[in-house]
Amino acid sequence: MDEHQKELLKNLPKIDEMMLRIEKMESLAGFPREIVKEACRSVVEELRARILREKGEKLRLPTPEQAADRAAEIVEAYRSYRLRRVINATGVILHTNLGRAPLCREAIERVVEVARGYSNLEYDLEKGERGLRYDHVRGLLCALTGAEDALVVNNNAAAVLLVLNALSEGKEAIVSRGELIEIGGEFRIPDVMEKSGARLKEVGTTNRTRLSDYERAISPETGIILKVHTSNFRIMGFTEEADLTSLVALGKKHHIPVVDDLGSGCLIELDRYGLEREPTVRDCLAAGADVVTFSGDKLLGGPQAGIILGKRAFLERIRRNPLNRALRIDKLTLAALEATMVKYLRPAEALADIRVLRALTEPVADVKRRAKRLAAILRRVLPEGVDIQLVTGVSMAGGGSLPTLEIPTLLVGLRVSFLSAAALEERLRRRELPVIVRVADDRVLLDVRTLDPEEFAEIRDALKAIMAERKAGEG
User: Fold this and answer.
1) How far apart are CA 468 and CA 93, in angstroms?
2) Exposed (0-12), middle (13-18) or buried (19+): which is 172, by Cβ within 10 Å?
3) Most confident segment among 76-80, 263-267, 336-340
4) How far apart are CA 18 and CA 6, in angstroms?
5) pLDDT single digits (tens) 193-202
6) What is the mean pLDDT of the chain?
7) Residue of 46, 101, 351, 359 with fewest CB within 10 Å of its CB?
8) Nearest of 270, 184, 279, 172 to residue 224 by alpha carbon
9) Whole-number Å distance between alpha carbons of 1 and 465
10) How much is the average pLDDT of 84-100?
């Protein structure tokens, strides 16, 4: 450590002095002293680390006023909401990083209604006694899928964990090697199985697993046969897999339950709308699966949840499992899920009102009309030097769903003569209402398939503000 560094360390801002300055700021009146003190300490520690890391005469300490202002910014930032709504113009319909499925209007209204006061979460209004939270959606889920019984937990990873623990703890769970998937966040089926207490028994190979492979693996130690839908990838070419119907017959022969983890889950026959065939929940239950699990916030288009459907005897074992309490669904998620499921009672309403389904199935001609409308709106307000063009492209389902599907779309492309695409992307992303876009060929692209018409005005206002900021900077 040189002498200059020692001098700087000796003259670091005093925390008490910083706090005295902050306490005089009206905007921070009423903040707990401990929070203010911690913010001041973090500023001083950041300066100390920089002094030790960076040598040289160019290093200068901030004035006491500047140090106090920096600490005040940290305290002020606590009042800013970190979780915010964003506009998804990327074309990735189930964008995991952007919260996957947006809720339909009725689901939002139900969340607000249930949150504003008390609710009958676990109270039977007819009998005047304690009830089960699952009863609010059990009937709907069974009616829509043909299941005997239903249970809901906080996400599909939790659903798989709970089912494995309830039905196969201390026993073997037979799974094809080609289905030992990993999804986002390094969530791996083998790891979940290990935590559940089930013992993984792999059969077949990565690309080919026959029914005979499962049958040879069955022993007195077998707890379940697990089929995992490879919803986030596809194996193409020289492949073979045992279908669910064959596995169900094998399970019945040996009195072993068959569990089908669908991952995304789907209640609508997507191939009717020009998309690739995706097994529906009803299909899997009709094929005889004893238990089916899937997500609530993917192809279903609802809130994050793990839905467990199947035969009553197995669902009762799962419900009684002590892990169920740790993984159970909360009242706000339950309210949103119930409203989403009600939409499916009229499939036409579900397709129109559940935004994920609408984005997946909207004809490209309709997307083009909306793209033209957005382009016209932007042309009316943006200055010269902004080139606005319609660009053909493809959207993706995302969220670990329909991985090979490319959906034709129209994008509004913006090329700005006085601003790079990267700079414009950053400024849109840093707005109070962030707009998340694509960038290609030095052009910002707005994929209209994932945009709601109500967001057009917000995009217009964001771009107008960015252009105005540039003009003001030049002045």
Assistant:
1) 31
2) buried
3) 336-340
4) 21
5) 888 999 999 8
6) 91
7) 46
8) 172
9) 48
10) 95
Express each pLDDT in 24-48 by its tens digit.
Answer: 998 888 899 999 999 999 999 999 9
Residue reference for tokens 């053909």: 392
Report angle CA 343, 271, 437 to the nearest 5 degrees.
75
Best CA proximity match to 230, nearest among 209, 249, 246? 209
Q: What is the pLDDT of residue 194?
A: 83
Half-sphere exposure of 401 toward its Cβ, with a 13 Å CA cutoff? 35
> SS3 string of the chain?
CCHHHHHHHHCCCCHHHHHHHHHCCHHHCCCCHHHHHHHHHHHHHHHHHHHHHCCCCCCCCCCHHHHHHHHHHHHHHCCCCCCCCCEECCCEEECHHHCCCCCCHHHHHHHHHHHCCCCCCCEECCCCEECCCCHHHHHHHHHHHCCCEEEEECCHHHHHHHHHHHHHCCCEEEEEHHHCCEEHHHEEHHHHHHHHCCEEEEECCCCECCHHHHHHHCCCCEEEEEEECCCCCCCCCCCECCCHHHHHHHHHHHCCCEEEEEECCCCCCHHHHCCCCCCCHHHHHHCCCCEEEEECCCCCCCCCCEEEEECHHHHHHHHHCCHHHHHECCHHHHHHHHHHHHHCCCHHHHHHHCHHHHHHHCCHHHHHHHHHHHHHHHHHHCCCCEEEEEEEEEEEEECCCCCCCEEEEEEEEEEECCECHHHHHHHHHCCCCCEECEEECCEEEEEHHHCCHHHHHHHHHHHHHHHHHHHHHHC
Cβ contacts of 136 within 8 Å, gap of 6 or more: 334, 338
Residue 109: both structure tokens together: 């209204």
Confidence of residue 475 (pLDDT cuts 50, 70, 90): very low
Q: Which residues contact 295 (CB under 8 A, 6 or more apart)?
A: 155, 156, 263, 264, 265, 304, 305, 306, 307
Say which amino acid occupies 366.
D
